[in-house]
Amino acid sequence: MREITASGQTVEEAKENALNQLDLTEDQVNVEVIDEGKKGLLGVFGAKRAYVKIQEKRDLVSEGKSYLQNIALEMGAEGTDVTVTQQGNEVTYELIGDRIGLLIGKRGQTINSLQYLTSLVVNKDQNSYITVVVDAEGYRERRKETLENLASNLAKKAMRLNEEVQIEPMPSFERKIIHTALHDHSEVSTYSDGKDPNRRVVIQPNNLS
Amino acid sequence: MKPLIETIVSPLVDHPDYVEVTVEETDRKVRYHLTVHEDDVGKVIGKNGRIAKAVRTVVHAANSNTNKKVYVDIM
């Protein structure tokens, strides 16, 4: 992280000097005024220059990108590229490469772990929370379809057996897909049961006797 | 595998210089011992071991092409 101290006749000028030296704009840095300076008599006698300290802000979103790239490389998925799309408070990292299967893992457990670890890096000592999504080859969309099918099949099963049906434990964002899929269903309702990481969705027939 | 663990863990902690991984290897097992600064232990274990679990999942995935069983211990 770069940091410099610069001076000028006024605080504004000092700030401008510093930004020119670092080749950055004002929103990329933290500014600390060390000395406001004094104009002095006729701008000559007793004049004191203004000093400011400029510190480059950490770009946590791009740190998340290099974090994923480094891990992919060390995992043996050489040449994995990462594209970043940011939308409001949500950042999506899309992994592109030849060894995506390795990075997704069985039932997405590897990609989910990578997503969790990346969100820790991106949200490290930050006040506002950024939602991190790690995706690869449309995995999240495909998984959503799979879960919606699973939800409708298990809803039928619950109705047929007239008893509660438990789904295997999954992370919160996947449980949400199941809840949403069955939200408008007239004959079953859903709730989650257990503690993470073993929290699971239970489908319950409405007219359970 | 050692650099992988360091790559995963270092950005999570406040004292990356203290991250250390040692290896203990036998015929069928590889055991990695991860040590971090004492203030950072919580940052690599997490609530209910959630971070530790994620680290292990990624390490296991990277290890899937070998036959040896891998363990990651956090001291």
From TrEMBL, chain A:
| Compositionally biased region (Basic and acidic residues) | 188-199
Keywords on record: Cell shape, Cell wall biogenesis/degradation, Chaperone, Cytoplasm, RNA-binding
Is RNA-binding there in the keyword field?
Answer: yes
Alphabetical list of SUPFAM superfamilies matching this protein? R3H domain
For region Jag_N domain, the annotated ranges are 5-55
Record InterPro entries: Jag_KH, Jag_N_dom_sf, KH_dom, KH_dom-like_a/b, KhpB, KhpB_N, R3H_dom, R3H_dom_sf
- Which residue ranges run through the membrane? none
Could you provide one GO biological process annotation from this protein's UniProt record? cell wall organization
**Which terms does the record give in the GO molecular function aspect?**
RNA binding
Major localization class: cytoplasm
* Entry's localization field: Cytoplasm
Q: Does the keyword Protein biosynthesis apply?
A: no
Could you tell me the superkingdom of the organism this chain comes from?
Bacteria
Describe its function: A probable RNA chaperone. Forms a complex with KhpA which binds to cellular RNA and controls its expression. Plays a role in peptidoglycan (PG) homeostasis and cell length regulation.
PANTHER family associated with the record: PROTEIN JAG (PTHR35800), RNA-BINDING PROTEIN KHPB (PTHR35800:SF1)
Fetch the HAMAP family from UniProt. Answer: KhpB
What protein name applies here?
A: RNA-binding protein KhpB
What is the species listed in this Swiss-Prot or TrEMBL entry?
Alkalibacillus haloalkaliphilus
TrEMBL record, chain B:
Question: Some GO term, biological process aspect, for this entry: which one?
Answer: peptidoglycan biosynthetic process
Q: Which InterPro entries match?
A: KH_dom-like_a/b, KH_sf_prok-type, KhpA
Q: What is its main location?
A: cytoplasm
Keyword Chaperone belongs to the record: yes
By sequence similarity, the record places it as follows: Belongs to the KhpA RNA-binding protein family.
Q: What does this protein do?
A: A probable RNA chaperone. Forms a complex with KhpB which binds to cellular RNA and controls its expression. Plays a role in peptidoglycan (PG) homeostasis and cell length regulation.
Q: Where in the cell is it found?
A: Cytoplasm
Question: HAMAP family, from UniProt?
Answer: KhpA
Gene that this polypeptide is encoded by: khpA
What is said about its interaction partners and assembly?
Answer: Forms a complex with KhpB.
User: What Pfam family is a match for this entry?
Assistant: KH_KhpA-B
- In its UniProt entry, what is this protein called? RNA-binding protein KhpA
Q: Which GO terms describe its molecular function?
A: RNA binding
- Tell me which domain of life the UniProt entry assigns to the organism this sequence originates from: Bacteria
Q: Which UniProt keywords apply?
A: Cell shape, Cell wall biogenesis/degradation, Chaperone, Cytoplasm, RNA-binding
Q: Which GO terms describe its cellular component?
A: cytoplasm
